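Sorry to interrupt, but I need a hand with the structure work. Could you write out one complete protein record for me, on any chain you like? Could you add the entry underneath, on a fresh line?
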Amino acid sequence: MPRRSPIDTTQQVAYWARPVDEVLGSVRSTSEGLSQAEATERRATEADPLGEHRRRPALRILIGQYTNPISIVLIGATIVSMALGDVLDGSIIIAIIAASGLLGFWQESRADNAVAELLASVQVKARVLRDGRVAEVRLGDVVVGDVVELSAGDLVPADARLLQSRELQVDASALTGESFPLEKDAAAIVEADATVAARSNVVQLGSHVVSGTARAVVVATGRDTEFGGVAHAVAAADVRTAFEFGIARFGWLLARLVAVLTVLIFIVNWIYGRPVLDSLLFALSLAVGITPQMLPAIVSLSLSVGARHLAQRRVVVKRLDAIEDLGAITVLCTDKTGTLTTGAVELSRAVTADGVRSDRVMQLAAINASAQRGFRNPLDAIILAAHAVDATALAELPYDFQRKRLSVLVPRGMVDTPDNELLDETPNHSSAGSSALLVTKGSVGTVLPLCVTVRAADGGESPLTTSEVQAFADQLAAEGNRVLAVASRAMPALHALSVDDETDLTFEGLLVFRDPAKAGAAEAVASLQHAGVRVVLITGDSAATARATAKAVGVPADTVVTGQELGALDTARLAVAFRDVRVFAEVEPMHKARIVSALRASREVVGFLGDGINDAVALHAADVGISVDTAVDVAKQAASVVLLEKGLDVVADGVRLGRRTFANTLKYIRLTTSANFGNMASLAVASLVLPFLPLLPRQILLLNFLSDIPAMTIAADEVDREQLKKPIHWNLRRLQVFMLVFGLLSTVFDLITFAVLVWGFGAGSVEFQSAWFVMSTLTELAVLFSLRTARPIWKSRPAVALVLSSVAVAVVTVALPYIGPAATVMGLEPPPALLLAALGAVLVLYIAANEVLKRRMPGLLH
């Protein structure tokens, strides 16, 4: 446990109400930050970071293998047995329990290590000043006294007092409950009793930057933050996925079954006059046999194997249970750029409203892109690559997702085409005091209504005909282009801008960006749809652009719903609309979250793929949030799956591997529970009619141990193609029916074996136990191959590891009674050849019966 920080955190109370110099002094830092040595020393003493995956100590994993109630009671009873003189029996039982626990420990350790390694590859970083230079560090390595740099898209890594800020807006909805961004200002004076929302000179963990830039000094980290106490309480709550909940419900079902059987078997054997301790050990051994003790290890192994396979396909899961969710997706909502398109956006041309290429439009767009500081936008980088300028704004109105535009105020002398004096002659530009130029860039739909005139190619202005310009923009968008508008207005040089200044603009022209459909995107869409996953395109682009892109990749686009239309729909009409709509255009961030929530409410399992600031809410709302390694921090943090390479083909691979992983997990559960239930029920019945125990406790535990060895390889087993064609869900009722039907079939053939042994061969206790041990192990192996597939056993190819491990266990099982010392220790003797032949015939009939029952009840294996 980390030591208490030497920094006096009591002095940080109401740090928002104190001067910056006092805050810096209280955390023993300066505006230039810490040295690396100081940061390393402080990290060892501060509160643990929130939300970081930590490897469980090996000792805890090992102890966990032996601390389930059944194992504890069995170990206790065995120790009592040894104390009463039965040292050999007790030692054998302890050895088998130890071996089973070590097997589970090995597998769970591998799974835990795999998760830690994968998460390390997609960590979110923070920018801090160390030794006077900007350095990138893990969020968990940010310490009190660090000076952090923040810009749009960044997660706030800790509670911090602002030192500098520029047009800073922060989404603190996790702390305040307000969905609108909060304006922040380093120079603001705040009272000590101010609410969280009113503390405008600080930023806090749990929030993220929407626009603007800032520097801030950290005053609290981890659980010492405002958000930390709440997050710790939430983390302590029992929040489980549907898969985990299903496992837990099934576990309670087995626990009740085991408890009832154990008590009944013990009481009946005690009534029959058998020694109390022997009866208890037998009953507890049966309980161990029924219980799939390796289930936690198998689930962890299956999911970690799936995670490693996904990583090979450049898909990293941040939590293992997301693999099950990935395989269960029925709807995938995705953005356009880089997913359905190449993502290599290029500025094809800058044109006036009548389609003539224009240097002025290009220059104005570049000035806007260079001067703005509030929002990192890849389109601005593309503009500056085409026309490099270095501009500084007198004032700025940052981009936001409601206005869908940004404006900067620059000196008029910065624009050299056409002649600046031309502006003085136009009716909506008064030359008096108009020493600056407002340059606005954004979506056509939001910029065009603000304009009253339009500039022609020769530089002259005329009254704007909105419909003509809109028609031209729509024509460009229908060709699959993304179109932005540029407008301007001469005005006085101000220190601040408001939305009211974005009026009476002159429409300068259009920027036309081209982002062609990605090669293979159409095939990936078809692959997902063939797998039962509907692909829904959600984009902020225009309806025409969205429709063109959707058609190019095979997404049905007969109906396109815009964000404005979406806002007018009530919940009932929204549900109806979603039945056919596959394309949503001109949407805002909350529209995306509303679409996802509505789909989930209609019982769809929703995946959402996004990488922008405006995707964070929808990523949280989805069953599976999917982002990319190059995404902004807030999107990557919100996602449960991170793609190292953006594209639908990668997602399609992830869905298939998710289904394969979940299918193999369910395969183990079905096989072990049905086989164990059948065998142990047979043993319980046999114990009631035989004058001796049908199997000794050590033999039951060895049988259970041997059958678990090949079962461990199921995590990497092959899965039939038809199982990957539709989403897989946890179905407890179907699992119960499966266990009952195939468990009872196993019991029927065990009773046939019982009849063969008792009435056919008159077997005594040791011969009976030896033959039953061999037969029980072989039937578990046989059912493994029969019930791992819904196909006929000979038409489905198992994994090589499953075949080899099963053959090895079968050889050991058959050979064990013939190996003198081992046979003596285990209480076995070689069965007669004729008896083995008879048991072989029963085994063949059992496999055939399983195959017939599979064909009669195919739904149980899907």
